[in-house]
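This protein record is not my work; I was only asked to verify it. Would you go through it and say whether the fold makes sense for this chain? Here is the record exactly as it was handed to me.
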Amino acid sequence: MKIHDVVFVYQMKGRDELQWHGRYHQHADNEFEIHYFIQGRGQFLNDSTLYTITPGSLFLTRPHTMHSIRADDLDDPVTYYALLFYIDPDEEATNLLNSHLSTGKIYKIGTSYRFFFEEIKEKGQSEHELLKRSAEYQFLSFLYQLSDGLHRFHYGSESNHHIEKALRILQNSVMEKMTLPDLARKLHLSESYLIRLFKNKLAMTPMKYFRKLKVEAAASMLINTELPIYLISQKLCFYSEFHFSKVFKQMTGLSPSRYRENYFQTLG
């Protein structure tokens, strides 16, 4: 197994963003995709069947299967993780995917798997080969347990529960201001323990993760809308446009204007 990509899509609601994520497309030979929806309502077209999206629903899409996401209710925009992976035909997992996991089914796993997919995303994007491999084995284990009934799958110590709750709070607060004391107070934890927990689980502090979320949301706005940079900065509650540009460049290597210039999507 090889994980090709893991993305977190925050609140798709811009016109061009809806067009991009809602495009009817397919993937190549031996490429499968998982969509895990954690917020919002809409429809997921998988092959020729249209399913209703609800928070906590998961879908498997097979190679060459046409699929798209439809999010019509902009008052309740869709947020989700998408994971694209490759399985060699000779691997044992091929039988699992072809015999035990169905594309014609909604897997109702609940919304408590943010940390699981976030950890897979961080490890899968690592420059360290061993971390990438650990993410692939971790995800493969998830698929096996999913095929056998997810109610038997338990991903969580007490510390994982705290991380899960923290991720939910931070992801739902992207357009707001949030400080470390604010977050610690909501979780009823000390600031030092919370920092240690995030460093152990995600190799970063809570506030670095929160800035990362804001930068990901900003990147989406830059390439999917024509909002001025200063307005994007305001919407995401940065101190100033200068502060926003500095943080954005630190995390992406590009200024917001250069990022928009390089990646702006012309659709239709």
User: Anything to note?
Assistant: The chain has eleven helices and eight strands.
